[in-house]
Amino acid sequence: MSKTNLTRRGVLKSGAVAGAGVALPTIFTASSAAAYTNEPTGASVTLGFNVPQTGAYADEGADELRAYELAVEHLNGGGDGGMLNTFSSKELKGDGILGKKVEFVTGDTQTKSDAARASAKSMIEKDGAVMITGGSSSGVAIAVQGLCQEAGVIFMAGLTHSNDTTGKDKKANGFRHFFNGYMSAAALAPVLKGLYGDDRKAYHLTADYTWGWTQQESIAAATEAMGWETVNNVLTPLASTDFSSYIAPVLNSGADVLVLNHYGGNMVNSLTNAVQFGLREAQANGKNFEIVVPLFSRLMARGAGENIKGIVGSTNWHWSLQDEGSKAFVKSFGTKYGFPPSQAAHTTYCQTLLYADACQRAGTFNPCGVGEALEGFEFDGLGNGKTLYRADDHQCFKDVLVVKGKENPTSEFDLLEVVEVTPAAQVTYDPEHPMFAGGQLGSCNAG
Amino acid sequence: MLGLGKKDTSLLLVVVALTMLAPFILNPFPSDSAMAQFNAGYPDLMQRFVIFGIFAIGFNILFGLTGYLSFGHAAFLGVGSYSAVWMFKLLSMNILPAIILSVIIAGLFSLIIGWVSLRRTGIYFSILTLAFAQMSFALAYSVLTPLTNGETGLQVNLDDPRVLGVSATADGSIPVTNLFGLEMRAAYDMAVGPWTFTFSAGYYVCALVMIAAFYLSIRIFRSPFGMMLRAIKSNQTRMNYTGLNPKPYTLAAFVISGMYAGLAGGLMASMDPLAGAERMQWTASGEVVLMTILGGVGTLIGPVLGAGLIKYFENIFSKINDTVLHSWFAFLPDGIEDFFVSIIHPFVGKGWHLTLGLMFMLVVTFLPGGLVEGGQRIAKAFRKKEDDKPKSPSTEPAE
């Protein structure tokens, strides 16, 4: 290496020159002219779709992404317009949002809080996304919701069913269309009573994270209120693939109902194990042994195959619904992709439309304005009947479907039948309900 | 300078220049061009580059010098993150106490794990550290939920005490992490023509810490202590026979690298106040091994380069989706466009692991010394051309 002569004076001099050089362009740029984080100034607006593309919930993630792309197409005036035509609010004209063309970026949450936050951060910092949506796990949704609150963008939650998302971890910038564990329990309990009687002993297997815990708590509370007894609750790691060792003790526990608080690949595996152990044919306490899966989806039903027949659960939406909104959505999704959408696809599609509509009504992309437009918003025509976005906790209140695995499916998609549509009033709870208490929305953050 | 040899000084200056000018170097493409996809100069990713750089530098002190391959280093990173977030919850949002605590806790934790694991060498040591790390992960994930908030991850809330700070700001939101008032998320955008360069306070704090960590690692490498660690790597039996006990040296190296990991964890939590259990999973431990090997084991700058490369792939390649691909090949006729997109599709987006795997395979096969060896070969090729010219004969000292 050649000899360099570093003198104190020389270093100071060159440092001052370099500093001035770096500072010079700042004179010409107006510092922080934007009123809020990522204010769209061009002819387009960017939305961030953050879904699991790998991991246990990858199937749901892929379907969510399809729905997002469809929603963007409809917002920009492409396709047949889908639910834009049936939506009760007629603000959206198919020319983007507030006249700006909708563009999007995607990211992989890997079903991990850390990766999800990294991906969301890059969307906000690099791509200038003004809204983040997605997530197929409550843990991830809560983590990303916290991030969006800090960064000052809106978070439209995707598939997240934990009470905590709009309970103790609720945030002013976060909104959830999907239903939650409490609603599932409130809708299921009367149906379970009608089917299996009020003298049952339940054994819970629960996925060991926020969603599993809150759903188990809700189901146990609702079933105990009608006379059931909870024998045991066993927590299983989310990463488990074989549940034999958890299923084996169930038969000798004195229980006669098994409640599987599992979702996605977990539920497919635990149900298959339970059926292999002969639980469905078993008798306990002089009654037929029954299995209940509180949160169902068509993707899971397909994974579980034969085993799903006759099993009762609840769902946010099902493609066989016959209202105008659902029919329009199933038609445009089916035309584009060749198969019907899942409940994950439905909720993410709705969230995108609801966000776009709120911007349109507020006349701005400012998170505070959009939040105000969403709070207390009542709408219809998105497949769930009359729905309210409650201002107290940013949770949607709508009818809940109780479904059952079909005994004689006519196609590979026709796996669930709707047993009962529980009206929204029956699943509505007080915002200060003990299962949801402890959190505060805080104030909206525009960055 | 600073007690370093000439070569080390210039290496340190190169690292200083690279980190200080990173916002320019990482954003080579105008922000509205198609190539902007490959820009990596946004705060979050730049912070990750240097934080994982620190993590890998620390890991290299253990693996590169003593040859002990730890498969559980992520546990220390995780412990560091949790400690830092707890400081944010209980004490204040100032990052200094948080980082100090995370280094101390990670040091204590690594002392315990190291004390047990270092009873064995080779593969048994690796398995022991792996077992400890997985245990920590399982504990953080479920058993210790009150302490770690399980799968959701530990977050700061509005109702945390924060005895030296405020629970909530005047407008009702959670205060942000800061260094004596300098907010970590503060950033300044500089527009120069079509380019946009972002200078983030958080990044520069991390970068300064990394330069300090890098300097410390050079000093360790060149110290008698470092020499002793190398002796352990080359022949431990011989060391025993000469009457030296290697255990205190390995344990010290283990604790130092554990503290580096804790520092990285604390910084990570300072930039984004959340600590998730998956930070401690074995895949995270494996990642730092990959970073070190990819960059060059036992070299000073290798681990930093490896960390940068892996994080670049994870954050940039994973975001190239089909829509982006189609826009790249839009100039081609439809059939050929679809053909190209379908060929590239498996390697980008969710397939970024595949690209990284191929890359890793190529590096290990053709450049066993990692990226640093690649750089040396290129440098040598250039030097050879210069050497063709006749030069005055120089005297080489005998070995």
TrEMBL record, chain A:
Which CDD domains does the protein's record reference? PBP1_SBP-like
Q: Which UniProt keywords apply?
A: Amino-acid transport, Receptor, Signal, Transport
Among PANTHER family, the record links this protein to: LEUCINE-SPECIFIC-BINDING PROTEIN (PTHR30483), PERIPLASMIC BINDING PROTEIN OF ABC TRANSPORTER FOR NATURAL AMINO ACIDS (PTHR30483:SF6)
Q: Which GO terms describe its biological process?
A: amino acid transport
Q: What is this protein called?
A: Receptor family ligand binding region
Question: Does the record carry Membrane as a key word?
Answer: no
Q: By its UniProt entry, which InterPro entries does this protein fall under?
A: BCAA_transport, Leu-bd, Peripla_BP_I, TAT_signal
Entry-linked Gene3D superfamilies: 3.40.50.2300
The protein's organism comes out as: Pelagimonas varians
Q: What's a Pfam family in this record?
A: Peripla_BP_6
Query: Which segments constitute the Leucine-binding protein domain?
Result: 45-406
Q: Which segment of the chain is annotated as a signal peptide?
A: 1-35
In the record, the note on similarity to other proteins reads: Belongs to the leucine-binding protein family.
UniProtKB/TrEMBL annotation, chain B:
What species was this sequence derived from?
Answer: Pelagimonas varians
Q: Which residues cross the membrane?
A: 12-29, 49-71, 91-116, 123-144, 201-221, 248-268, 288-313, 325-348, 354-375
For this protein, the record's Pfam families field holds: BPD_transp_2 (PF02653)
Coiled-coil positions are none
UniProt keyword terms in alphabetical order: Cell membrane, Membrane, Transmembrane, Transmembrane helix
Give the source lineage, highest ranks first.
Bacteria, Pseudomonadati, Pseudomonadota, Alphaproteobacteria, Rhodobacterales
Topology relative to the lipid bilayer, per the entry, is: Multi-pass membrane protein
Record InterPro entries: ABC_transp_permease, LivM-like
Query: Is Cytoplasm a UniProt keyword of this protein?
Result: no
Instruction: State its location(s).
Output: Cell membrane
Q: What is this protein called?
A: Leucine/isoleucine/valine transporter permease subunit
- What molecular functions are annotated in GO for this chain? branched-chain amino acid transmembrane transporter activity
Q: Which GO terms describe its cellular component?
A: plasma membrane
